[in-house]
Every structure is written in structure tokens, then in C-alpha cells.
Amino acid sequence: MKKNKYIFVLLLLISITVVSSLGTFFYVKNNNKQNTEDDDNILIMTSCNPVYIATLNVVGSTEGYTVENLSQPTTGCLHDYTLTTEDMKKLSKADILVVNGGGMEGYLEDVMEAYPNLKIIDTYEYIEHSLGEASDLLIEEEEEDEEAHEEEHHEDESVSEEAHEESHEHHHEHGANSHIWMDERLFEMQVAAIANELMGENLNREETPISNNYLSYTNNLNAEIDKQGLEKTLSGSNVAVLHEAFSYTAQSLGANVAVSMDLDEERQVSAGEVSEFIQAIQDNDIKIVFAEYDYGNAMGKLIEEQTDAKVVYLETLVHGSYDASSYITIQNQNYKKIKEAL
Predict the structure, then answer these.
(1) What percent of the chain lies above the pLDDT cut of 90?
(2) CB-based contacts of 27: which residues, under 8 Å, 6+ apart?
(3) 226-341: what CATH class?
(4) Which sign, positive or negative, has the C-alpha torsion 149, 154, 160, 161?
(5) What pLDDT band is residue 169 in, cutting at 50, 70 and 90?
(6) From CA 335, how far away is CA 153, in angstroms rounded?
């Protein structure tokens, strides 16, 4: 009886060992298979939310591609964002990096130096060198009047010399207003840039899943974005903006940006600038101002207190997490806010 008990325990231990070994074998086999499939996939990293959304829609469910977005800033401007250690690890494994371009990614030269074999799709550059009217829609930053600002600086002691220089450098070193995705026509060109680069020299490119995804998404952009009739209501009207991204919003509606001030966490605004901005609103009969809430709220309150203009707070698609449908959703929300403010 005792001997049978030992035999039973021995058989039980053998069974457990066999099952455990088989489980380990199939786990390792499956894991290796997964790693092989991941190695075979083309890893596309994107630099910011707008091109991430565009790339998601271009790739769709096409086999052989993985799309990931670099970590995004929770506050502030994309211009000043620096890559994290995790970002650099991801880029070391990437095959392609899709960027907005136009100076938006201040770290781009460092990435190119660190990963010289990494293919970069620069959507701004694609538009800049394209034929037709698209390149004419790109907005250049206005040059500030140095002499006027020096005079204002001496008159208003509340603005330090250091803050003035930092602000000037921050807003004018890039030359271009690179928030191009805020005009749907330019965003559509960004989508085209990504699709064209991914299809490459494929002779049958028009029959590829990438091509089909591109056509489907651009059709959706044209069909589903609802401007609420604003392209008629605001066409030719003067507006003001408190964030340079919204110059493209105004452009997409046919409105004229009569006065602008680019506000963010580093922007130091003097009392003189505030006074000039409010005076410009009154002089140009401006009825609506486009702003981002985080940095434009304080200025927005002053504007509504001292003028008849309404301040509407819009989204730039920079901060937060988004999915493939987010561009259409956010643009429609922006246009609805503008419509309700009029």
C-alpha cells in the first residue's frame, strides 16, 4: 500500500514535469513566432498627433505595418519638445519616421545624426515642393518690428530684457507657421505625402491597400467635415488669433487675420502689447477671436471685457491622445464652437 502511494506520487510528479515542459516549449515557440512577425513588420514612428492620425488612416489594417506615436507634450509648444529616453529606444528600432516638418520638430537634426539610415517622411517639405496651389497655402511668420519693440521695452519695465529676447527667439526662429494640419486642404496633402512615400515606386500602386486607404480617408475628410457654413459667413471678415495655429483655421474659412499674438507658456506679454492688440480689434471691427484656452484664457477675458468681440477656445490636436477618427471629430467641434460664438 505504501509502495503504491510512492508510485502514484512519482507518476504525478512526472506528469507535472511533462505538462510544464510542453507548456514552456509552446510558449517559447509562440513568442519566437511573434518576435519574428514583429521583426518582419515595418515600424513607422510618428512625431506628433496630426501625422499620427494621418498615418493610421493611410496604413489602416494593411498587413506588415506597425504605427506608433512618439510621446507627446502635455503642455507647451511642440517646437520646444525634447525626446525622452523611451522615444530614442523606439526610434532605434524604427524603419520610418513621419514628421510634420517646417521646424515643428526641433530635435529632428539630432535624430538624423543619431540614425542616419532612418527614412524620414517630411510632410511640410512635400507640400512645399508640390505643384499647384497647396504650397501657396503655407503661411510665413510675420517679422516683428525690432525698433518698435525696443521702444516698447524701454517704456514698459514689466518686461525684462531676458524675457523679451527669449520670447522673440522662441516665436521667430523657424520662419514658417508649421501648424499646417489646421487647414484641411493642407492636412489632406500631408495624408498624400505619407501615402506616396509608403507606396514608393510600386508600378501597381493604384491597386494597393495603401492607395485604397488614402482615397477612402480623403473622401471621408471631404464628406464628413462640417464647416457649419462658416466659409460663407466669415469669408472676407477680419478675425484675431491668440495662437498661430488658428491662422490656418481662419485661412480655411476665407477669413482675414487682422491681428495675431502667439501665446504659450513662455510668452511674456507687456501691457503695451495688450493695449495695441485690443485697439487693433476695435479698429478692424473684429467680432471673433480664436484662442487656445490654456494660454489664451486670461487675455480672452480682457478682450471680452474691453471690446465687443467674442473669444472662442479651439483645439489644436497637439495635447492628448487621439485615434484614427479624431481629426474629423476635433475639426467639427472647432467649427461648431465658432458657429455658436457668432
Answers:
(1) 66
(2) none
(3) alpha beta
(4) positive
(5) very low
(6) 37
pLDDT band (50, 70, 90) for residue 24? very low
Closest CA to 243 of 165, 339, 311: 311
DSSP 98: E
Lowest-confidence region among 11-20, 52-61, 153-162, 183-192: 153-162
The band of 342, judged by pLDDT with boundaries at 50, 70 and 90, is: very high
Fold of the 40-136+182-224 domain:
Rossmann fold (3.40.50)
d(CA 335, CA 182): 11
pLDDT exceeds 90 at position 199 = yes
**What CA–CA distances, in Å, run from 104 to 7, 174, 232, 233?**
73, 8, 31, 31
At 187, list the grid cell.
Answer: 492636412
Where residue 262 falls (left for φ over 0; alpha for ψ -120 to 50; beta otherwise) is: beta
Q: Angle 265-124-176 (CA atoms, 0-180°, nearest 5)?
A: 50
**Domain residues of the chain, as ranges?**
40-136+182-224, 226-341
Q: Which residues contact 280 (CB under 8 A, 6 or more apart)?
A: 240, 258, 259, 286
CA 30 to chain centre: 37
- pTM of the predicted model, to two decimals? 0.81
Q: Which is it for strands 139-140 and 176-177: parallel, antiparallel or unpaired?
A: antiparallel
Chain centroid to CA 216: 21
What mean pLDDT is predicted for residues 190-210? 88
Contact between 134 and 123 (Cβ < 8 Å): no
Start-to-end CA distance of the chain, whole Å, equals 93
Q: For residue 104, give the amino acid letter.
A: M
Residue with cell 497637439: 318
Per-residue pLDDT at 29: 44
